[in-house]
Amino acid sequence: MDDSGGEPGAEASGPQTRGDGEPALDRPLPEGVRHRVVALAADAFGGFTYPELPVSLRPYARFTPSRRVKYAATALAAALESDAGFRQKVGGKLRESQPELTGALDAGTPPPAADPLDVAAAAYLLRPAGWAKLVATAGEEAQRADAERADEETLREVARLREEVEALHAHARAEAGRARAELDTVRRESDALHRKLRAAQSDVKRAEAAQRKLQSALDEVRASAGHERAAAESEARRLRTRLAEAESAAEAGRRSAREGRGVADVRLRLLLDTVLDAASGLRRELALPPRDTMPVRPADTVDAVAPGQFSARDIATRALSETDPALLDQLLALPQAHLVVDGYNVTKTGYPSLPLEKQRLRLLGGLAALAAQSRAEVTCVFDGADLDMPVLLAPPRGVRVLFSKAGETADELIRRLVRAEPPGRQIVVVSADREVADGVAKAGARPVASTLLLKRLARV
Predict the structure, then answer these.
(1) 161: number of CA atoms within 13 Å, CB side?
(2) What is the DSSP secondary structure assignment for residue 322, as one 8-state letter?
(3) Nearest to residue 439, comparing CAs of 408, 415, 421, 410?
(4) Nearest-angstrom CA–CA distance, 101 and 121
């Protein structure tokens, strides 16, 4: 934004200068900085009288700060951009509420540990020398942080999807094995039924052969009886008797054949029903799993925040006070614990009157003894951003000593060390800086105060 009253929107490659000589932004105000500036103006809004407010903001005079941010954000941003007097009044309220930050900006040395968005918002309101660069730098920092968070979310989602795919593969293999076993059972049963069917067919063939044999004998008897009917009545009666017996035998044979054929039909029907039921069961086995065994339900796909779980450091915190040095011993006794120390933060808390070289030597000596007693991994970080050359130092046994690179603070180096560790490892960060403690806690580390380490080193 600039003081000419126009909305920001033009893209350029570097800071621009307005017609009156005052620096102006070369791109739109970063969203995070804009939100922070509007919030500051909304908080300071209530300290102005009605005539002191710009005309465009007077309809919001009775709103609460939160409602001003929600409903008057655009009007506040436009007033701050176009009305230099209003912006200066808001800057005056900011000087009263945050004298340390505004004083540092006036001196040209913004606090390195301060939130970049707070620094950029204050610079936009106060307009010290180089304010446009501070605002642009804050926008780049916010974009970089958003990109890192997006990468971490993507990696977690990929890992989760891989686990689900592995679980599905394992489930599919188990289902396939069970289906093959069922198929083998069905095949064995089918083979047994086929054998029974073949036996029944053999019985039917034997019955038919017997019927044909009896029919042939009957034909012979009838022919002989016709030739001998005229010979004698007794022979005829005898032949009729034999004929009746033969017919009875034939009928019995036919009845037996019909009964045998009926049994075969029933067996065939049973075989077909068995095969159909087996096929139906096989289709069920190869289909999707039942509803109560589904690995993922629709409600599981809804994005929400799950409740947290207790970790080892939470249990240790409940057991001891935050000011008890024994708490640090409990944390370092956990498997594969890693102690990361903000060096100058501890030395300037414990013995600030000593020269920096003696502060380092005293702290490193105590850390070496603590590392030998606890057998934990110990890393001590010092701020080396302003050093012209490396510090000549022989690190003690068991203590890793690191200095931050040019352009990087010790706080940033500590955050990178925490992010480099695998999830689940116990990391203890010693610093009195609240911003550092909050940042490492979000990354999974356990922050402790510098005074707690100083008390523990006093016992070495």
Answers:
(1) 6
(2) T
(3) 415
(4) 11
